[in-house]
Write a structure and sequence with these properties.
CATH architecture of the largest domain: Beta Barrel
Distance between the termini: 25 Å
Number of domains: 3
Radius of gyration: 21 Å
Strand order of the largest sheet: 1-6-2-3-4-5
Largest sheet: 6 strands, antiparallel
CATH topology of the largest domain: OB fold (Dihydrolipoamide Acetyltransferase, E2P)
Length: 225
């Protein structure tokens, strides 16, 4: 796996702002108030709400079908609850950090930018827990958003902050290091990462190219930068 740890000078060159918390809600939220995007603790696991639909039962009673995705693993779960069922909503925020490389233990390392209150603080996530496109195309100095879950102070996991769901830019600029032929395709290997993409015949060594990172987990050539 590609390894290169950036210096804090990289962070200094990229002035980034830290977004406000997505949710700092109270512990309890009734089933009818659960909204897509919030993070719930269900059966001692953390889930992001995908959707909440109401189904009528009888004249006055209602139940809610809540679709969930487990934070980190992406496993799907559905729960059905009455209107008065109380879920535990956890404090969560999106934080913008800078990728600084993979260490010798294959952990992906992210640091807070220089201007941030936690400047220099490092967050480490197991590299093999990241989607393949991220393992291949994360580049040092790249700004990324991470989901930060802060367990309640009175919980057993109060001292275990959780970091997950890395979101990369939809496109990024890389430098062509090598060009090889793979069948009928001209493949460019990149200086800043382990990834490679098919490029057109006009692209030469050392050129800057744009790579499009797609939601379906693939990456493609986006032309000269």
């Amino acid at each position: 796996m590609y390894r290169r740890l950036s210096q804090m000078a990289v962070a200094a060159r990229l002035p980034l702002s830290r977004p406000a918390a997505l949710a700092c809600a109270q512990r309890g939220v009734f089933a009818d108030k659960v909204r897509a995007g919030v993070v719930l603790k269900v059966d001692k696991r953390y889930y992001r709400v995908v959707a909440n639909t109401r189904s009528q039962k009888g004249q006055n009673a209602a139940s809610f079908n809540i679709k969930l995705t487990e934070v980190g693993s992406g496993r799907k779960k559905e729960v059905t609850a009455g209107q008065g069922h109380d879920f535990e909503e956890v404090r969560a925020e999106r934080v913008r950090l800078l990728f600084s490389g993979f260490d010798d233990d294959d952990y992906a390392c992210f640091v807070f930018p220089e201007h941030a209150a936690d400047a220099g603080k490092e967050v480490n996530i197991p590299g093999d827990s990241l989607p393949l496109v991220q393992q291949q195309f994360l580049a040092c100095g790249m700004p990324v958003d991470l989901l930060h879950i802060m367990p309640d102070e009175d919980s057993a996991d109060a001292d275990k902050d959780i970091w997950a769901e890395v979101v990369m830019p939809s496109s990024y600029v890389y430098t062509v290091e090598k060009i090889n032929l793979k069948g009928l395709y001209k493949m460019a290997s990149l200086v800043e990462c382990d990834g490679s993409v098919s490029v057109n015949d006009q692209i030469q060594l050392g050129e800057k190219i744009k790579v499009i990172v797609k939601p379906d987990g693939t990456a493609s050539f986006g032309g000269r930068a």
